[in-house]
Task: inverse folding
């Protein structure tokens, strides 16, 4: 009956739109009615499903018409009422699109990670199927899209009501009715707030951003996904509400690829003239459009070739296009020489030719020089710098040159620790002197704890070494930080979607520590974290001397069990056995030729990394 009514409505609205193609609201209403038919049909299949597979298939595909219904509803309201915040409309559609992607790539569907069974319940005299299983934490993403959809409809209805005329009040009634129609789904979203958050899919990362000031409110949503052929894709949308400029939107689309020989980047983004971020002044409106395309080719013998194209459009001036080509070759064993040519076209065209030399010296110290020729003259500089190491340490730089017809000089001192970076820079020319002091770091909340860290710009790992504090942890062969009192540490700067070797410093592990490996591989999502737990045996180690009733040492090869532990130990020469995993008080069992005895062991107070010597302990009831 519902399907028949919706089909009738869809036919009527399509007929009106066919006679006047400018009346887009009628087409969108028809699409909305057709998606309701699709949802109803799949709901019936779920209700009468006899197998888990049939139920899961119908539930997975029902999110396709749900996506169509949400998008159609958003743009129907926008077209019919002419109100509603545009950035909120884009956010709702983006969230629903992401929900649809997750629906087909995470678990059984957006609703369940796993369906373990079906049960029948009675509803209005009819038996229907209901699934039991493990909920998918990503389902809250779909519920969030419905909450924002309700907010969008309420905002549009309120704006229409404020117009004050009869048409505005009729429009507001329609928008308010749609809000009430969403009531059931919003209730579900509110009741689902207790679901536990789960780890992010290894091939998909969701990023959100929100900002608020006295005059500007903004937020955004971004998706970074692993695409076929090792391509990393990115899509994002953001919106703002500013007291002076009103509502604005910003969007981004990009793709990256990098291998040993080839690399490319494609990126395009744009913004409406009213889009603002906190700190953006009226004199610097957003770019209308920015496009970037670059390609690099690497060879071992002939160097590296790079090509780049950039196009920028603003709301206040003509577009600017930049084309660049560069070639880098090796000079000697360690130095490199780069040639670059740039052409800029726009309100005024210009060509530049440049040459730069990079010569590594001892350690992390490098000498650089550059010269660039353009129509206005020649700029150049010479500098020496010591770069920051991956682990903790200091760095510095000095530079002198000529720019825009003026001599200038610069210098800086830096120190990087496990929890951040402090900087001090100074520059001077004939017209200006500047001193800058800075500090940067990060605070990450993960696994119920807060970690002070260096600035987190890339992926990171939460490393767990249970029971061992002060152990050096790093990426590849460098120590970046140390475990805290809980045996945990945060390691930033990992490569997304690539194997990263997380390594413990063996010199800082207690001699009694038992660990299967000091190196583990992590593959984190983009700008997100993974947990790396090293399998460590807790407790202390002790060298225990055991003798039999006749005073002779326990026989070599006798087996020793530690109560409450699954690991076996054996007696070596002179009746001595090295046993690990011990606590303050312990019970040991020695077994030999079908005989056994129990031994009580108490360890003296000492540090965890001290090897205690215990004994001799007498084993009663065991003979050679």
Result:
């Amino acid at each position: 009956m519902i399907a028949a009514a919706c089909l009738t409505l869809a036919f009527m609205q399509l007929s009106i739109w066919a006679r006047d193609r400018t009346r887009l609201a009628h087409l969108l209403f028809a699409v909305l009615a057709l998606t309701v038919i699709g949802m109803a049909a799949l709901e019936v299949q779920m209700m009468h499903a006899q197998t888990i597979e049939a139920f899961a298939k119908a539930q997975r595909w029902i999110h396709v018409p749900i996506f169509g219904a949400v998008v159609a509803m958003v743009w129907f309201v926008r077209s019919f009422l002419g109100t509603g915040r545009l950035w909120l409309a884009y956010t709702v559609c983006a969230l629903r699109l992401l929900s649809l992607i997750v629906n087909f790539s995470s678990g059984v569907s957006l609703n369940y990670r796993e369906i373990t069974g079906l049960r029948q319940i009675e509803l209005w005299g009819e038996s229907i199927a209901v699934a039991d299983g493990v909920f998918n934490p990503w389902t809250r993403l779909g519920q969030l899209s419905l909450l924002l959809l309700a907010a969008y409809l309420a905002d549009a209805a309120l704006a229409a009501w404020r117009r004050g005329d009869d048409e505005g009040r009729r429009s507001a009634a329609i928008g308010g009715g749609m809000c009430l129609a969403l009531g059931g789904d919003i209730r579900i979203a509110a009741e689902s707030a207790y679901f536990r958050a789960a780890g992010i899919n290894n091939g998909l990362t969701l990023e959100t951003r929100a900002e608020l000031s006295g005059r500007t409110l903004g937020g955004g949503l971004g998706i970074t996904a692993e695409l076929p052929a090792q391509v990393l894709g990115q899509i994002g949308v953001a919106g703002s509400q500013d007291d002076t400029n009103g509502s604005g939107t910003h969007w981004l689309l990009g793709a990256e690829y990098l291998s040993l020989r080839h690399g490319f980047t494609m990126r395009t983004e744009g913004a409406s003239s009213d889009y603002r971020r906190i700190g953006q002044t009226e004199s610097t409106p957003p770019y209308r459009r920015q496009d970037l395309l670059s390609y690099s080719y690497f060879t071992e013998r002939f160097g590296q070739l790079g090509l780049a194209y950039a196009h920028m459009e603003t709301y206040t001036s003509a577009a600017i296009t930049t084309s660049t080509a560069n070639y880098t070759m090796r000079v000697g064993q360690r130095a490199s020489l780069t040639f670059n040519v740039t052409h800029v076209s726009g309100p005024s065209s210009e060509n530049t030719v440049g040459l730069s030399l990079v010569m590594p010296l001892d350690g992390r110290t490098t000498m650089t020089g550059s010269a660039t020729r353009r129509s206005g003259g020649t700029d150049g500089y010479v500098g020496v710098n010591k770069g920051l190491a991956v682990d903790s340490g200091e760095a510095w730089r000095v530079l002198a040159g000529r720019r825009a017809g003026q001599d200038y000089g610069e210098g800086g001192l830096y120190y990087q620790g496990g929890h951040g970076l402090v900087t001090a820079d100074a520059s001077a020319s004939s017209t200006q002197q500047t001193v800058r002091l800075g500090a940067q770091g990060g605070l990450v909340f993960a696994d119920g704890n807060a970690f002070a860290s260096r600035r987190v710009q890339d992926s990171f790992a939460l490393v767990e070494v249970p029971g061992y504090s002060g152990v050096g942890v790093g990426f590849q062969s460098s120590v970046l930080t140390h475990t805290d009192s809980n045996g945990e540490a945060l390691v930033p700067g990992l490569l997304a979607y690539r194997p990263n070797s997380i390594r413990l410093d063996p010199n800082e592990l207690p001699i009694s520590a038992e660990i299967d490996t000091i190196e583990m591989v992590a593959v984190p999502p983009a700008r997100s974290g993974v947990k790396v737990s090293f399998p460590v045996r807790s407790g202390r180690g002790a060298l225990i001397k055991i003798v039999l009733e006749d005073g002779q040492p326990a026989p070599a090869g006798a087996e020793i069990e530690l109560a409450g532990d699954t690991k076996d130990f054996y007696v070596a020469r002179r009746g001595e056995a090295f046993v690990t995993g011990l606590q303050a008080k312990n019970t040991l069992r020695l077994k030999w030729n079908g005989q056994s005895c129990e031994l009580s062991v108490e360890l003296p107070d000492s540090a965890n990394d001290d090897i205690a010597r215990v004994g001799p302990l007498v084993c009663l009831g065991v003979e050679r």
Summary: Residues 165-200 have pLDDT under 50 and may be disordered. Helices lie at 2-19, 24-47, 52-61, 63-81, 86-103, 139-161, 166-181, 183-191. The first helix runs from residue 2 to 19.
